[in-house]
Amino acid sequence: METITKITKDKGQFYLIWLSSGEKLRVSEDTLVRQRLLKGQEVTEAMIEQIKKAGSYDVGLQMSLNYLSYQLRSTKEILDYLKEKEILPEDRKKIVIRLEEMNLLDDKSYSESFVRTMMRTSDKGPKMIEQQLKRKGLKDEDIQYGLTFYLIEEQVEVAKAAAEKAMRRYRTKSFKDALQKVQLHLMQKGFNREVIDLAFEELAFEKDEEQELEVIRKEGDRLWEKHRKLDSYKRLMKVKQGLFQKQFDPDMIQQYFEEKEIENEE
């Protein structure tokens, strides 16, 4: 038998019940009133266990409601959150059921909301979004339902924006190499070949020959310096090989060497 030594207010709608053993129980206001718990009251072990069980559910439910107040959550996110907060396993299941009854937890609605948000705020394609939803514990049918809202027209627009951004990042590459890297970038972002092709068709990237030649000059000069210890023939071959490997235009590579020859003559 133990005695309640004091009852203090905790965060939110919770209270702490202090026992004579030094143990403290966290309960909701509803449990406090329902169990008629008062300072100085004697409580049996059975009553303490009952209070703990009621407290676990009430506290877990209130925590979940607070957790959901910031944004929608998947069922797995709620269960993981309750586990982290040390809510009893049987209460976690009850809380999920209660939240579903309150229409606050629905993986299908979560999937739709998540996909719509990613469409507006990210440069990710369907495949990458699908992977993210799987990590959040959604069933395949709920994932596919959400992805139906990501129409191919919208995928193309997102892919175009991502491609233009990536193309600027690869401006120091050869035009051909840059195109390949942008395509790979879009695939890694989760877009399929059809969407990538449509995006490229609409963008119609054009090679800036002056920019390409300037890149060749910089890369060629870097390779020329790198192989300065070789004899002239081997040095020439190494530089040519390096430029061809980077997929620069052969005619422009030739132009670079013609310029280099003039430079050396001077």
From TrEMBL:
<dbReference type="InterPro" id="IPR053924">
    <property type="entry name" value="RecX_HTH_2nd"/>
</dbReference>
<dbReference type="Pfam" id="PF21982">
    <property type="entry name" value="RecX_HTH1"/>
</dbReference>
<comment type="similarity">
    <text>Belongs to the RecX family.</text>
</comment>
<feature type="domain" description="RecX first three-helical">
    <location>
        <begin position="62"/>
        <end position="99"/>
    </location>
</feature>
<keyword id="KW-0963">Cytoplasm</keyword>
<dbReference type="GO" id="GO:0006282">
    <property type="term" value="P:regulation of DNA repair"/>
</dbReference>
<dbReference type="InterPro" id="IPR003783">
    <property type="entry name" value="Regulatory_RecX"/>
</dbReference>
<feature type="domain" description="RecX third three-helical">
    <location>
        <begin position="210"/>
        <end position="256"/>
    </location>
</feature>
<dbReference type="GO" id="GO:0005737">
    <property type="term" value="C:cytoplasm"/>
</dbReference>
<dbReference type="Pfam" id="PF02631">
    <property type="entry name" value="RecX_HTH2"/>
</dbReference>
<feature type="domain" description="RecX third three-helical">
    <location>
        <begin position="153"/>
        <end position="197"/>
    </location>
</feature>
<dbReference type="InterPro" id="IPR053926">
    <property type="entry name" value="RecX_HTH_1st"/>
</dbReference>
<feature type="domain" description="RecX second three-helical">
    <location>
        <begin position="106"/>
        <end position="144"/>
    </location>
</feature>
<comment type="function">
    <text>Modulates RecA activity.</text>
</comment>
<dbReference type="InterPro" id="IPR053925">
    <property type="entry name" value="RecX_HTH_3rd"/>
</dbReference>
<protein>
    <recommendedName>
        <fullName>Regulatory protein RecX</fullName>
    </recommendedName>
</protein>
<dbReference type="InterPro" id="IPR036388">
    <property type="entry name" value="WH-like_DNA-bd_sf"/>
</dbReference>
<dbReference type="Pfam" id="PF21981">
    <property type="entry name" value="RecX_HTH3"/>
</dbReference>
